[in-house]
Amino acid sequence: MRQKFIVANWKMNPNTVSRALTLARSVARHAARARGTRVILCPPTLFLLPIANALAGRKCAVGAQDVSLKEKVGPHTGEVSAGLFYGAGARYALIGHSERRALGETDEIVSWKLVNALDGGLTPIVCVGERERDAGGLYLHTLADEITHSLKNVSGARVQRIIIVYEPIWAIGKTASAALTSHDVHHSVLFVRKTLASLFSRKIAEAIPILYGGSVEPENASALVREGNADGLLVGHASLDAHTFSAIIASVGRVRERR
Ligand code: PGA
């Protein structure tokens, strides 16, 4: 069985470092009890170093929300490279989140950021997903294209070090009732794996964790993993409250125990 991942994308929250530390410490206490599940917190860049220090030795990893297209230190005002994130304690990085793509990040940019993350020692968590769904299934072509172009610079050996998140843009930031059904998630996870198999091999595709993201809440978390067959979840708004996020961690842990 592949390991499960629960990734918290805090986006530009909370508004002070002390709130961020309180949230991180509280989540880490619950993460310690989640067997077979890796919990990863992606805080705002400014809070990453103090959180990584506070969580050192705990069972909760830290990730960046993005990395620079620049791979080396140098005259790049405002940029933060994968290597700098690694030095600050990050071990993962979200790459190509739809909110970055909405700011103009193309598949080409994503494909190079992914290489930078790998070169910098980080595990890229690559986000893909359609803007909207059509009854004719044309969105599947868009999804396959996005995967193909985003992964074009990685070899079969290196691609096994990445995590994919299927996150349909239309399902982000809503409530569990408006999220994808676990049946649809299952279908999409199969489609992503099939696309990976056609690009690399079936064996390689089987080794890559495929998570689901978009309006994950405690109400739908376990079904998305159990029936949706996702290898974990990317959680936005529901990761900002320790109690709510811990409920998600606990329910995914229980899915594993029942299997
Ligand atoms: P959401 O956000 O859980 O609030 O839908 C998910 C994301 O944007 O990664």
Bound molecules: 2-phosphoglycolic acid
User: Which residues form runs of ≥5 with pLDDT under 50?
Assistant: none
Percent of residues in helices? 40-55%
Structural class: alpha/beta
Detailed description of the structure:
- The chain is 44% helix and 15% strand.
- By secondary structure, the protein is α/β, with parallel strands linked by helices.
- It has an eight-stranded parallel beta barrel, surrounded by eight helices.
- Helix 5 packs across helix 6 (139-150) and helix 8 packs across helix 10 (218-226).
- The longest helix has 18 residues, at 182-199.
- 2-phosphoglycolic acid is lined by residues 9, 167, 172-173, 213-216, 234-238.
How would you concisely characterize the structure shown here?
The chain is built from 11 helices and 8 strands. By secondary structure, the protein is of the alpha/beta class.
